[in-house]
Amino acid sequence: MKEKKRALNNEIRANKVQLITDHGENLGEMSLSDAKVIAAEQWLDLMEIWKTPELSIIKILDYGKHLYRLKKQEQKQKQKWKAPDLKTIRITFKIWEHDLEIRRKQAEKFWEAHHPLKVTLMLKWRENQYAEIASEKMHRFVNSLVELYKVEWQIKKNWNTFIAMLKPIK
Question: Nearest 5°: phi and psi at 15?
Fold first, then answer.
């Protein structure tokens, strides 16, 4: 959000100006030289806000503070739009119910921070024979998170790994 370059102090070219204070108070129409005198008395700058052929609207302000406020506002905007990190929760074929509950609580913490979630279940060695049971375990875990997350990808099996992608519901 870059501000376009505005005319300052001696760059302003107008005969008649309307002066506005930093607090928004309108001081009325006057000559540019009178406005420069008022600004010099207060050790402040003049910045042109609007220009028409017969009248320019200028604001009396501390330009350094103005730039500082703009920079801070821009930083806040950047923080708001920071992309959330993808978090991964791994469950195993032999996971116990208590451990699944711990994983659910972990997923709730990720949800509070608005992070998308990837849930994986990897089968090892002989566990590959029980792919149906593993699939059912994944479905149960994903369905337990349905109030918090929307399923972005359905559960897919890729070789010996089941993967599900979840997106937080806001």
Answer: -85, -45
Q: Quick one: pLDDT at residue 3? A: 58
The CATH number of the domain covering residues in 87-168: 3.30.110.10
**Residues whose CB is less than 8 angstroms from the CB of residue 91 and which lie 6 or more positions away in sequence, other chains included:** 99, 100, 103, 119, 120, 121, 137, 138, 141
The 3 state secondary structure assigned to 40-72 is HHCCCEEEEEEECCCCEEEEEECHHHHHHHHHH
Helix (H) or strand (E) holding 102: helix 97-112
Residues of the chain with CATH 3.10.20.80: 9-80
The count of residues in the chain is 170
* pLDDT tens readout for residues 9-62: 778 888 888 888 888 888 888 888 888 888 888 888 888 888 888 888 888 888
